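Ligand-bound model needed. flavin-adenine dinucleotide.
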Amino acid sequence: MKHPHWWTLDVEAPFTIGPRELPGRVWTASGCFAYGLTGHDIAAQDIDSPYAGIGAVVTKTVTPQPRPGNPMPRLVEMPVGAINSIGLENVGFEAFIAETLPALAELAVPTVVSLAATRPEEFGSMVAELHAAGRDMPTWHGVELNLSCPNVAEGGHDFGSSPETVAACVAAARSHLPDRALIAKLTPNVARVAPLAAAAAEAGCDAIAAINTVVGLDVDLKTGRPVLPRRFGGFSGAGIRPIALAKVDEIVREVGIPVVGIGGIDTAEDALKFFALGCVAIQVGTAQMRDPFAAARIVQDLRRAES
Amino acid sequence: MGLLTPTTWDLTGRVTANAPVSSGLLRLDVELPRSVTFEPGQFAMLNLTGAGQLVFRRPFSILASDGRTMSFLYRVVGRGTERLADLEPGEAVDCLAPLGKPFAAPDAATPPVVILAGGVGLPPLHAWLSRHGRPGDLACFGGRDGGDVPWSLLSDEWRVSVDRDVDIPAGRQAHHGLVTELALSELERDGDPGPRLVMACGPTPLLRAAAMLARDRDWPCLVSLEEHMGCGYGVCKGCVVPVRLDGPGDSGWRNANSCTEGPVFDAADLDWERFGAHHATGGAA
Ligand SMILES: Cc1cc2nc3c(=O)[nH]c(=O)nc-3n(C[C@H](O)[C@H](O)[C@H](O)COP(=O)(O)OP(=O)(O)OC[C@H]3O[C@@H](n4cnc5c(N)ncnc54)[C@H](O)[C@@H]3O)c2cc1C
Ligand SMILES: Cc1cc2nc3c(=O)[nH]c(=O)nc-3n(C[C@H](O)[C@H](O)[C@H](O)COP(=O)(O)O)c2cc1C
Ligand code: FES
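Prediction:
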C-alpha cells in the first residue's frame, strides 16, 4: 500500500488512553474475537500470531447475569456485511470474574473488558468488583461500556440513546474506576450522536468508541418472514463503514477526548480513513470473524506504509 | 483453555481439481503451501479471494489430506457453494484448517462401529473409515438416487441406500429406503448384533434417526452437526447448539459452540427437543 503524505502515526508505538499506556492502535472489537481465547492454536505462514502488533482485545460484552442469547439462526450474511442477533450470550459477570479474567491475565495482549447492564447502578457495581479483581492484573487496561447494543433493546430503541442515560452510566462507572481507562461505546441508531458523546465526555469517560451495529432486518422470500427469529439484528461490516465514518466525524468535532473508530474496517486503507478523521485507535469486528489475522494484518500493512 | 486440536493453519491454497463425482456432489482438491494434519471429523473454513470473497468463510468437512493436498466434497446450495463450483484449477482458496473436535479414534474398548452418512455428510466418516476402520465395522451411505451417489469414492465395504431407486450403475447395489433401515437390516441379518457405536453425519432427520436407533438399544452414538457458522473458530457465538447440563436428573441446558465443542457431539448430550427447529423450516442465512 502507498503511504499517504499525511500519515505519520506509528500504530505500534505506545500511546496513552486513560491513565495507562497501550502498545498499539489496532484492536479487536467486542463480540468478534471472544475473549481473545479460543480452543485453537492458530498459525499462518507469513505472520507471527493473531495478536502480532495489536493494541488490545476488547472482550465479548459481559452482563450482570448469564444470558443464553437469542435463538438460532443468529447471523444473516449480506453482500456487504452481516446482520447478527447473538443476543449478548455470555457466562455472566460472576463466572467471568472467576474463570475468564484469570485466563485473560495469561494473554500477552492487553484487554479492555466490555460491560453492559440495564441500570447505571449495575454498571457501578460491576466496575467496582472488576476493579477489585483486576487491580493487580497488568494487562487489564480498562472498561468499555456497551451503551448501544440494539439486540437487547426494549421498546424498539437502544438502551443508550438518551444523553441522560449515557451520562448516568458513565458517571456510575467512573466513580469506581480511578486508575484504568473508561471508554463509552455509543449507538449509531440516533439522528445525532454528538449529544451522546458530549454527555459521555462530560460525565468523565476517557474515550468514546463508535460505532456499534446499525439496526437492520432481512426478509426470507421463501417464507415472507424476517430471517431472524427476533426480526431485527445489528448490521455490521463493509456496508456500515460510511455510516461509521460520518458518526465518528460528528463525534470528533464535538468532543475533545480521544475517539476509537469502529465499523467495516477490513484493510489498512479502511483504518486510515478513521485515522484521517482524527481517531486515536480503531477496532476490527466482522473482518476478524472471517480472518483470525485481520487485525494483525492491518497492523502489518500500516507498518509497511510507514517504511 | 488448552490446545484441543492440531494447530489450525490459515493458508491460501490453489485449486488443483474441482469436478463432479456424482449428479449432485463435487470434489474440490486444494494444494496448500504446507501439509496440514487433521483428525477425521474436523473441518475447514473455506473462502474465495479477491472480488469473490464472502463476508464469512464456509465450513466443509475434510475428506482427505494427502501431502499438501486437502480434499472436500460439497453440494451447491447457495451463493457460497455456487462460487466454489465456479473455481478453476489454479485459482486461489483461503483455507483455515483443521477446526473442531473429531470423531475419536477407536481403542480396545470401542465396540464395532455403524457408520451412517447422508449426502455431504460423507467426508468425515469416509476419512474415519479409511484411517480407523476395523473388521466388523459397518458403513452405510444414503443418497437421493443412484446418480447422486459418489460411487467412485465408495469401496465395496460401503452399503448404499437411495430415496429413489433409479440410475444405479451396473454391478453396484442400493437399498431403496432409509439409510437407518439399511443399517438395521444388515445388523440384524444374523440375529442380535451386540453392542455397537453409531457414528452419523448428514441432514438433521438422519441424525435424529441415528440418535433414536442408538438410544433404543442403549448404544453410544456420535453425531456430526452441520450448524450455521460465522467464524468457525470459536469467537462469535453464531453456531450454538443446546446441550444438556451434566448433573444427574438435571433438566437444564446450555449453549455449546458447535465449531469448537463440536461439530461432533455425543448424541446423548444434545438437547434434541431444542435442537434445530430452524433446520426443519429450511433455516436462513
Ligand atoms: C462442520 C460442518 C461441516 C460441513 N461439511 C460440509 C461438506 O463436507 N460438504 C458440504 O457440501 N457442506 C458441508 N457443510 C454445509 C456447508 O457449510 C453449507 O452448505 C454452506 O455453508 C452453504 O453455503 P452457501 O453460501 O452455498 O449457502 P447459503 O446461501 O449460505 O445458504 C443456502 C442454504 O443452506 C442453508 N445453510 C447454510 N449454511 C448452513 C449450515 N451451516 N448448516 C445448515 N444449513 C445451512 C441455508 O439455510 C440455506 O437454506 C458443513 C457444515 C458444517 C457446519
Ligand atoms: C457477531 C457480532 C457480535 C457482536 N457482539 C458485540 C458485543 O457483545 N458488544 C459490543 O459492544 N459490540 C458487539 N458487536 C459490535 C462490534 O463490536 C462492532 O461495533 C460492530 O460490529 C461494527 O464493527 P465491524 O463493522 O468491524 O463489525 C458485535 C458484532 C458482531 C458482528
Ligand atoms: S462459528 Fe463463531 S463461535 Fe462457532
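Chain A has a mean pLDDT of 93.
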